[in-house]
Fold:
Amino acid sequence: MAPPLVLVHGLWDHPAVFNRLRAYLAPAEFEIFCPHLPHRLGDTPLIALAEQLEQQLELRYGAEQPLNVLGFSMGGLVLRCWLQLLGGHQRTKRFVSIGSPHQGTITALPCPRWLLPGIADMKPGSPLLNSLNANLHCLDGVECHSFYCLLDAMVMPYWSAALAVGSVQRLPVWNHRQLISSAGALAPVAALLLLNGGDVGNNQEE
Structure:
């Protein structure tokens, strides 16, 4: 049986951001779970969001159910906090990130930590990112994939969206939002997610 797929949204987003991707995954028979993680406009630190995610996952799946996870934008960093700092790597088979600033983004530079700590966590060289990027060994047992586009005005420079482990793929779209809405992005991402999919489970709405 294929593990459930957990989709984690980004800043200023809601689980509905994955509606088009879910349509591409309609042939799948694994369960899809899209938790809502309120970011409060960037006021919530990423580790706090990861702790909220952990609570929702334990409530739904217990502590040992294997999972596949995908994060869009800031959601990819929330997942990295969960994977690398909260032990999520121990139960994760596949981690996919789409347009996530793994090396930080200069668009976060103007935000002071005292006001918007969640956004400040995404500054290049932030203490959180330095900690995550210095301790990638725990991802050795996780199948990792990161996707990006060249003209991403939210993740700058664009190469920041490349995780230092696993595969990296450029998507043929023009902006950040198209990474999660355009057929050019959704088709290859869905193909990856459906690869080696199981034949038992449920595709559930949240």
